[in-house]
Write a structure and sequence with these properties.
The complex is a heterodimer of chains A (707) and B (571). Chain A has 707 residues and is an alpha+beta fold. Chain A contains 24 helices and 22 strands. In chain A, the strands form four sheets. Chain A has a seven-stranded mixed beta sheet with strand order 10-22-21-20-11-18-19, with helices on both faces. Chain A has a six-stranded antiparallel beta sheet with strand order 2-1-3-9-4-7, with no helix packed on it. In chain A, strands 12-17-16-15-14-13 form a six-stranded antiparallel beta sheet, sandwiched between helices. In chain A, strand 21, helix 21 and strand 22 form a beta-alpha-beta unit. In chain A, helix 1 crosses helix 4, helix 9 runs antiparallel to helix 22 (583-620) and helix 12 (335-346) packs antiparallel against helix 13 (352-365). Chain B is 64% helix and 2% strand. In chain B, strands 1-2 form a two-stranded antiparallel sheet. In chain B, strands 3-4 form a two-stranded antiparallel ribbon. In chain B, strand 1 (202-205) and strand 2 (211-214) form a beta hairpin. The radius of gyration of chain B is 23 Å and the shape is globular. The chains are: A alpha+beta (707), B mainly alpha (571). The interface between A and B is large, with 77 and 68 residues.
């Protein structure tokens, strides 16, 4: 999915939201939001009073008319806010739908033996929507993959930009962690036989459309709790206002119904009530802007609560692969010679470590990266062999039993690998292992590096040449990010398969709080469970099938889009960019979501103070002239005071829509600091702003002669 | 206001502060069962009542036991009051209490309200006073403490789901705390001249030659528990203004001190139980700030007096020989400072005993007393009730403010979610709903208006005060309202029951829900429940929530009365 960065008030979205604001007036929809439903009922009642007054020819219709108009506006503004938030998602969903073309799939006959190769020529063209789980389809270059599935056969490069926005093609192959393909992506080269894993309507794109559109949106636990609080406050104010009428009757005369309704609407928390669902939708939307698809709002919320972050070392904290950073020579060996031999031994080594050795040798000693053919000559040279006879060079691959790799080139043999195995190899050829080797190895290991020993055996004489210092390179800026997390009260735990010594050194360098060394999938699971038993919420990322149980167990499990189907199904979020460090942004968005809700609730409640000072004296100043003292804003007249409060109450919803959609400003800091800042802005601000706002509106009403 | 007055108030404050720790430590040991010096008695009681000491109750069981105990004891009291004429210990041959009044009185004493629509000395036999009213003075206080302890256990326990045993908590609170303390303090009062006898009333010839009946009775024993248990039901109609109940400034000090003693200790106990003493001190500070603000307003308003008096040439300035200010309805032996302190403490702590007539306070002073109660009786509050009340307010505070720091709100490691908010909101809702609805009905209907002594805003204040006082289980009266009518006996009696049990049940449910939760460890991202910021926030939420609820009603009552008084008009 190509994420378009849209301006907050994108004209087409605004147009659509304006229409939707009226559609949402349907009582069935309004009932979902108790606060705004009360306002709706109030608007209807006021309109009825207005109708009665008009037919009876009462005076003062202008006031009732204006009150009723602004009450309707209050409801519509709230609906507009929600529609705006949804509109952004809907626009994205439309873009997604457009990308989901109605393709025809080449369906293969999958009825035969599962393990037998299928006949790739016997396919029938089937419309994509009629594919079922378990069907086999063939995709050749240029084909759009018709539905989600797993590669059953073949290797191919696939363009997944429709989903990820990333234009570089990715490799998909059968078996392993890169076997999952997504419907809507395109095969660029080779062919794939795909076993469909999703029924129509359940595919990844279908789910994504539903999610961004908010069609399956359910209230999150926190939203439910807040709705209960707001409903409770609404009931309290309803009682306060309804019982005010008897008090008024006792004191001298009843208050007109529209005025009572105006007071009620001003008191109940309409600001947060009107913006609550918009805030939730906007939170999901911000996740999508970050290219993270959250399976539920609940997961977004849980992200804000996370106490412990489990991060895989490789790819998340470090650049993913160990890199050679230094060549160390044994006594009596030139450093450049070690580099040369190391490079040579690594020429055929396609692992990232091997390549980094070649690169380092080139950078430090100007040794060009030779091809195998050139390498042959290079070997030939110092060995005083004849130049013209190419030496048959044979690559010795790494194996778990030998724990070394290298080359055999005629009489020259080169080996690189773990210290003890290379030492054993040298001794086997009756060579001598210098004591310095063990010392250097120790040193490197303690510093968190991996020592690779290089040895040669030339003409039957074996010796240790030196050591390659391989190091996990920590990504730039990680320490700062972990500091930020620590400030938020989040503990980071690095998961690695390394031994504890190496793990500790990297943990130290990266600045994580803790590490889990020599971790097996079960250990990861056990760690999550242990943390959760202590009342903590755990977030983690994963992409492999063996990550799936842990992803499911974690409170926030972010699966990489490049990962397996199992991982994606186990997690409750999918990162389309497959960037594990994005977990940090996910946490921040979750926090921002909750903060926005809390801040606007505080703001909404604090507003009531000013409204009381405007409306209560206005209501009773005729009965008790002494109450004029409470009119501290010196509002023009009782009518202007009430009207100004209602107008302020409606306009503040519109004014806060950008804040609701963007979220309150978030800076990582401790809870105490954040609280102090937000309490000042939204609590104190909430007290002061309406005093100013109501006074200004009152003056405006007087100037425009509306009262 | 005088320096002497302030010094007395400060001395009182200091005593409340100093008692918190020793009493709190004692209370911890009482409720965890390690206090054993009355073990044989305790065991005998359990055996006699068939209490299974080992039973750890789910909140529903705890609430059911609490309700059952209260219902049975209320019914028993009702019967005794109805039958007192034929029962012993009735030397004055007092008649049976009428049925509505008996209902109201038994409800009122069971709920720790002690609203009295009768005059003790002309209505209650010694038997009714000692076995029923004094019994409830002990029991309703012990019930309140037990309920608070149950809620705290809910916070302190990890994934437990159990709140303790109601009957055990009830017995321990009575046996180890209330009984010994009342016994010791009763001697202090007797030494100061509070009477304690079973004599028939004395008939004496006064100096003026008139004949006067002087009421007698076992006063001191009832007086201590009435204060200690924040009950407030006086032996005599004049309550603590009566010289036999409260003869000297020293007894006056002990009276107010006894009111705040246990609530202050309970807050310290809370800190120990949840292992967060700094939080408990923050709560204590919030309570103290609210108390201090209250007493300042009342003292200031009363010392300033009525400007209309001043305008007519009445000396309202305090001098050596003249207390100045508004002395109407106040005892000269206490003066303005001690009356203001007493009135503030008694309305803060849901005690409801009085040493001056609240109806005669200036509108502003009366407003402060009303607000004290409308805060939900959380300013130290009734024994137990104040603590659980403020914990519910903290839950709401933590929820709103906790969201602002970007986390699902946590209180002492317990996540506050939908179920907890539901119960906390229910608790917060019942209180204003009962007060406002019943006040509104009474302001509309004839039987409601019939009992009023004053018209205008002051009349409204009187009705509002009566329903606030009963819902808050305070029991103090504005005294301008004739409460002994069929209508008011029924409405106020019901109101005490609503204000007690319809709040205790959701509160226990909250405790039960909290007890089931895990305790999340505290870290930098946790909303801080200690420090000045939290204190301020808590005070702010308590004030704003109750002010927003009651402001319209108050505006038409004491506020308009005050503003009118400034404009030279009284009602």
């Amino acid at each position: 999915m190509t994420i378009q960065k849209r301006p907050l008030f994108d004209p087409p979205i605004v147009m659509r939201a304006m229409r939707d604001a009226f559609v949402k007036l349907a009582p069935r929809h309004m009932l979902r939001n108790p606060v705004m439903f009360v306002v709706l009922v109030g608007s209807v009642l006021t309109t009825l009073v207005l109708a009665r007054d008009v037919t009876a020819g009462h005076a003062g219709i202008s006031f009732t008319l204006q009150i009723s108009i602004w009450l309707w506006f209050t409801v519509i503004f709230a609906n507009f806010a929600e529609a705006m938030a949804e509109g952004r998602g809907k626009a994205q969903a439309d873009a997604l739908r457009a990308s989901r073309t109605q393709t025809h799939a080449k369906r293969l006959d999958a009825s035969g033996n599962r393990n037998a190769p299928v006949d790739k020529l016997a396919f029938e063209l089937t419309p994509a929507p009629s594919l079922r789980r378990g069907d086999l389809v063939l995709c050749t270059p240029g084909d759009v993959i018709p539905s989600d599935g797993e590669v059953a056969e073949g290797v191919a490069s696939v363009d997944e930009s429709a989903i990820t926005g990333e234009s570089a093609p990715v490799i998909r192959e059968s078996g392993g962690d890169r076997s999952a393909v997504t419907g809507g992506t395109k095969v660029l080269s080779d062919y794939l036989v795909i076993r469909i894993t999703a029924n129509p309507g359940e595919t990844f794109i279908d789910r994504m459309i539903a999610l961004v559109e908010g069609a399956t949106r359910q209230k999150t636990p926190n939203e439910i709790a807040l709705t209960i609080l707001l409903s409770g406050l609404t009931i309290i104010f309803l009682i306060a206002v309804v019982t005010l009428q008897p008090f008024a009757t006792y004191s001298g005369g009843p208050v007109p119904i529209p005025v009572l309704i105006a007071l009620l609407v001003c008191l109940i928390p309409t600001t947060i009530g009107g913006l609550l669902s918009a805030i939730g939708i906007a939170g999901m939307d911000r996740m999508i802007q970050q290219n993270v698809i959250s399976m539920s709002g609940r997961a977004v919320e849980a992200a804000g609560d996370v106490n412990t972050l489990l991060l895989d070392k490789t790819g998340t904290i470090t650049l993913g692969n160990r890199q050679a950073v230094e060549f160390m020579a044994m006594p009596g060996v030139e450093q450049s010679y070690v580099a040369d031999r190391a490079q040579l031994a690594s020429l055929a080594d396609e692992t990232p470590e091997g390549r980094s050795i070649v690169v380092l040798a080139k950078e430090k000693f100007g040794l060009r990266g030779r091809t195998l053919a050139e390498g042959n000559r290079a070997i030939a040279d110092p060995a005083a062999d004849r130049h013209d006879i190419p030496v048959q060079m044979e690559f010795v691959p790494f194996s778990a039993s030998t724990r070394m790799s290298g080359i055999n080139a005629g009489r020259l043999q080169l080996r690189k690998g773990a210290g003890d195995s290379v030492a054993a190899w040298v001794r086997e050829q009756s060579g001598v292992v210098p004591p310095e080797m063990t010392i250097e190895i120790e040193k490197i290991a303690r510093a968190g590096g991996t020592p690779l020993v290089v040895a040669e055996c030339e003409h039957g004489a074996a010796r240790v040449l030196g050591i390659i210092y391989l190091k996990d390179v920590v990504k730039g800026g990680m320490r700062e990010r972990f500091d930020r997390l620590r400030a938020m009260g989040i503990r980071t735990v690095m998961i690695t398969g390394d031994n504890p010594l190496t793990a500790a050194a990297i943990a130290q360098e990266a600045g994580v709080d803790d590490f889990l060394a020599e971790a097996k999938p079960e250990d990861k699971m056990a760690l999550i469970k242990r943390e959760q038993a202590g009342g903590k919420l755990v977030a983690m990322t994963g992409d492999g099938t063996n990550d799936a149980p842990a992803l499911a167990q974690a409170d926030v499990g972010v699966a990489m889009n490049s990962g397996t189907q199992a991982a994606k199904e186990a997690g409750n979020m999918i990162d389309l960019d497959s960037n594990p460090t994005k977990l940090i942004e996910v946490v921040e968005i979750g926090k921002q979501l909750l903060m926005t809700r809390g801040s606007l609730t505080t703001f909404s409640i604090a507003n009531d103070v000013a409204k009381y000072f405007a409306i209560i004296p206005a209501m009773f100043v005729v009965t008790y002239p002494a109450l004029q003292t409470l009119n501290i804003m010196r509002l023009h007249s009782p009518q202007s005071a009430i009207l100004a409060s209602v107008i302020f109450n409606a306009l503040i919803i519109i004014a806060l829509i950008p804040l609701a959609l963007r979220g309150v400003r978030y800076r990582p800091a401790s809870a105490a600091v954040i609280l102090r800042r937000n309490l000042f802005i939204y609590g104190f601000g909430g007290l002061v702003v309406p005093f100013v706002g109501i006074k200004l509106i009152d003056m405006l009403l007087v100037v425009t002669r509306l009262v | 206001m005088t320096l002497n007055g302030w010094l007395q108030i400060l001395f009182f404050s200091l005593c409340v502060l100093l008692i918190a720790k020793p009493l709190g430590l004692y209370l911890v040991r009482v409720y965890d069962g390690s206090m054993r010096w009355l073990r044989p008695v305790e065991r005998a009681i359990y055996r006699m009542c068939g209490v299974d000491v080992e039973e750890d109750q789910h909140w529903t069981r705890y609430a059911a036991a609490l309700l059952f105990f209260s219902a049975v004891s209320m019914l028993f009291t009702y019967l005794v009051l109805r039958l007192q004429a034929v029962l012993p210990l009735n030397p004055q041959h007092l008649a049976a209490i009428p049925d509505r009044q008996a209902f109201e009185t038994s409800a009122s004493f069971t709920t720790n309200t002690n609203w009295q629509s009768y005059s003790g000395e002309v209505a209650m036999s010694y038997l009714s006073q000692m076995t029923q009213l004094a019994f409830h003075n002990f029991m309703s206080a012990a019930v309140g403490m037990a309920a608070a302890v149950a809620l705290i256990r809910g916070l302190a326990r990890r994934s437990a789901g159990r709140l303790g045993n109601f009957y055990v908590d009830l017995v321990r609170g009575t046996l180890y705390v209330l009984l010994p303390a009342s016994l010791i303090l009763a001697f202090v009062l007797v030494q100061q001249g509070v009477i304690q006898n079973f004599k028939p009333y004395l008939a004496v010839n006064t100096l003026e030659g008139a004949r006067q009946t002087i009421a007698m009775g076992p006063v001191a024993s009832q007086e201590t528990i009435k204060q200690l248990g924040t009950n407030g039901g006086g032996f005599f109609n004049a309550n603590a203004a009566h010289p036999f109940e409260n003869p000297t400034p020293w007894t006056n000090f002990w009276s107010v001190f006894m009111i705040f003693m246990i609530p202050s200790g309970l807050v310290y106990m809370f800190g120990r139980m949840v292992k967060n003493q700094r939080h408990a001190w923050a709560v204590w500070t919030a309570m103290f700030l609210l108390f201090f603000a209250g007493v300042t307003v009342v003292y200031w308003a009363e010392a300033k007096g009525n400007p209309i008096h001043a305008a007519r040439g009445v000396d309202v300035v305090a001098t050596e020989s003249n207390p100045g200010g508004n002395m109407e309805g106040k005892e000269v032996r206490f003066g303005i400072a001690n009356s203001a302190l007493y009135a503030t403490v008694t309305t803060d702590a849901s005690c409801g005993c009085v040493n001056s007539m609240h109806d005669s306070f200036t509108p502003l002073g009366g407003l402060a007393l009303l607000v004290n109660m409308q805060l939900g009786e959380v300013v130290f509050g009734g024994v137990g009730a104040g603590l659980y009340g403020i914990i519910v307010m903290i839950v709401l505070t933590v929820f709103i403010a906790g969201l602002m720091v970007g986390r699902t709100p946590e209180y002492l490691g317990k996540k506050i979610q939908a179920r907890e908010i539901q119960m906390a909101m229910l608790y917060a809702l019942v209180f204003p709903a009962a007060i406002l609805t019943l006040t509104a009905i009474s302001a509309l209907i004839k039987p409601g208006l019939a009992g009023l002594n004053n018209a205008g805003p002051h009349g409204l204040s009187e009705i509002l005060y009566a329903f606030t006082s009963t819902a808050a289980n305070n029991g103090s009266a504005f005294a301008g309202l004739t409460g002994s009518t069929y209508y008011y006996n029924t409405a106020l009696g019901l109101n005490t029951l609503i204000g007690r049990f319809m709040m205790i049940v959701p509160m226990l449910a909250l405790g039960g829900f909290l007890s089931e939760k895990k305790i999340a460890p505290e870290n930098a991202g946790t909303f801080p429940v200690t420090g000045p910021m939290f204190v301020l926030l808590l005070v702010g939420v308590i004030v704003v929530v109750s002010a927003l609820t009651f402001f319209p009603a108050l505006a038409l009552g004491p506020i308009v009365e005050h503003l009118s008084m400034l404009a030279g008009r009284v009602f």
